[in-house]
Amino acid sequence: MMKEKCVAVICEMNPLHRGHLAILRAARAEAGENGCVIAVMSGNFVQRGIPALFDRYTRAGAVLGGGADLVLELPYPWSSASAAYFAMGGVSVAVSAGANLLCFGSECGDAETLAAASEIEKTPAFQAFLRDAAPETGEAAAREKAYAALLPDAPSSLFRSPNDNLAIAYIGECKKYGLAWHAEKRTSGDGYVGAAAIRRVITGDGLSSAEPYLAPGCLELLRQAAEDGKGPVPEDAFAEYLFRVYAALGDRLPAGADGSGGVLDRLVRCAAEAKNGTEWLVLAATKKYTNARLRRAALFAVTGVSDEMLHETPLYTTVLAANARGRRHLASLRKNENFSILTKPSDYRDASAAVVAQAETAHRADAIYTKLMPRPMPSGFFLREKPIML
Description:
Helix content is 49%, strand content 12%. By secondary structure, it is an alpha/beta fold. The protein is globular and about 55 Å long.
């Protein structure tokens, strides 16, 4: 009997918009009508080191309505890490969940060029660029310089795109697992607006103003979540929370992941000089230390995430949403002693000690998220949540 086609999409859906639907449609086309589309989606904290505008279950419900059959969580801290660790975590969860192809968006959509870039990253010459230039310019600028020298025929704009940098990282991880991939060229113009711009519209002008840019049906789910006090969670409230922690604890905080190279010292020093969280991040930012790195470093320190933790492979995921086809796929998976698929977050307590350690780090981040919601919830609120089943 032929194994069903299972296509994964690694995503944040923060929030779900028309561009996301194009990737989900491409995944469905690859999977076929009888295949399964899995979304491996960030939880309550996303890659730029910020809280998701709406919680993971609200967003998972939207993704299910957008065409996925099964939504699994990309656990924290990989959900908030830089591209290499985000991709490593996402692809490993997808493979453990039975995916045999990864579908992702790309600004260029040129799979051959992206694959060439993923090979270049393994070379000593590329690593030398990072070693020599990154301490002065920051890793992003060092990577761009390395690509320009080692892959001169590629358009320079390719390596300035966060989506293409993620695509390169995805391909590198797919090669490790022998996983096939499909790069879908991202649509631009004609009313397509990115997630960051939509978040600004929602926080500035309200949910209704974002309706033209959201996927069909998404607005209703977001409105219900807002009525329930579960969002939107503003980035400035999170910055203020971190600022107060740093202002109070100062250098008693550990460096944590992304906090080396003077990042922690700069965050502590600027917290003493700033009047609020927004000013704090502005003071701390430099060409070398981007806002995303600063936020990640601050969050990782507060939640106890070390560099060693990021190098680990996720040992578990949590089911966020599923339809009948997604449930059938879950039932077809063979039991994996090295990977746990939890039906609800509290199930981690019955898992191995290694899973418990990873999950408890994620729950520390969730506890922060509960205090940022418009209607603050008890710290264990998300432990009691159950997946959305259609």
